[in-house]
């Protein structure tokens, strides 16, 4: 079954065409990296899937449902590119509030688990406005995961994180074996550790999609995968 599907999607902002006839399908349980140069349309794609934007034409489906349906919203966890938790609330209050809104059972237990998991326990009583950018990012990740979503949409999830935390988060994602993950990133090594497939966008169009291991077929012997991806991205700019 497809957990995410875009069919001939066009999205414009005024006279800028951000996505121009984009189609792809992601099966439930797949892990896919969304790659593309700046302005390619990656964040726009994620916002359409989470229902924050509507396509001008074409269709976006989450398990066959409209992204704004209650059933779809329940199963999606979304980390925006510049996530901003409630600045005046503490770390714990943010987590408890979102967990309650999400209908999580045993809110306290679940919040404690994420405070531990993301090393946020020392900051649980601090207001978000006083946190470092990295700790805000950890909280934003916890907020995206608190309801154990089936589908994870992650926009540059490792931004601002120190190396030990990056490793912890990668293990956490990799332990979520049943989840469907679509992750936007500029870092090829991160794509390779979080996903086995890629969708490459450029100029609002899909220029390539397939298994990461198949990317090598487009390169010279020993050519770094980053260089192959860069060529594919530039083929349509
Ligand atoms: N709110 C907006 N208003 C007008 N234009 C927008 C808006 N958001 C995005 N765009 C434009 O749409 C295009 C796609 O932007 P988008 O943010 O989806 O790209 P991206 O691939 O996520 O880029 P980056 O890697 O730089 O974050 C760009 O040309 C961008 O300038």
Automatic annotation (TrEMBL):
InterPro entries: AAA+_ATPase, ABC_transporter-like_ATP-bd, ABC_Transporter_VariousFunc. PROSITE patterns: ABC_TRANSPORTER_2. It holds the Pfam family ABC_tran. Residues 4-228 form the ABC transporter domain. One of its GO terms (molecular function) is ATP hydrolysis activity. Keywords: ATP-binding, Nucleotide-binding, Transport. PANTHER family: ABC TRANSPORTER ATP-BINDING PROTEIN ALBC-RELATED. This is ABC transporter, ATP-binding protein. It comes from Saccharolobus shibatae.
């Amino acid at each position: 079954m497809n957990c995410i599907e875009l069919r001939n999607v066009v999205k414009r902002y005024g006279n800028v065409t951000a996505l121009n006839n984009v189609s792809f399908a992601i099966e439930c349980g797949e892990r896919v990296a969304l790659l593309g140069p700046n302005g390619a349309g990656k964040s726009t794609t994620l916002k359409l899937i989470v229902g924050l934007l509507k396509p001008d034409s074409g269709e976006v489906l989450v398990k066959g449902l409209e992204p704004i349906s209650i059933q779809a919203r329940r199963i999606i966890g979304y980390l925006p590119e510049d996530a901003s938790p409630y600045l005046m609330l503490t770390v714990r209050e943010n987590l408890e509030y979102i967990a309650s809104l999400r209908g999580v059972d045993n809110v306290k237990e679940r919040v404690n688990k994420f405070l531990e998991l993301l090393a946020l326990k020392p900051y649980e009583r601090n207001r978000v406005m006083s946190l470092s950018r990295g700790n805000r990012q950890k909280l934003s990740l916890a907020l995206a995961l608190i309801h154990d979503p089936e589908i994870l949409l992650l926009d540059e999830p490792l931004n601002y994180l120190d190396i030990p935390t990056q490793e912890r988060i990668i293990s956490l994602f990799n332990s979520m074996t049943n989840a469907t993950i679509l992750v936007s990133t500029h870092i090829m090594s991160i794509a390779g550790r979080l996903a086995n497939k890629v969708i490459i966008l450029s100029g609002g169009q899909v220029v390539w999609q397939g298994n990461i291991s198949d990317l090598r077929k487009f390169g010279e012997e020993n050519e770094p995968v980053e260089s192959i991806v860069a060529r594919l991205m530039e083929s349509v700019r």
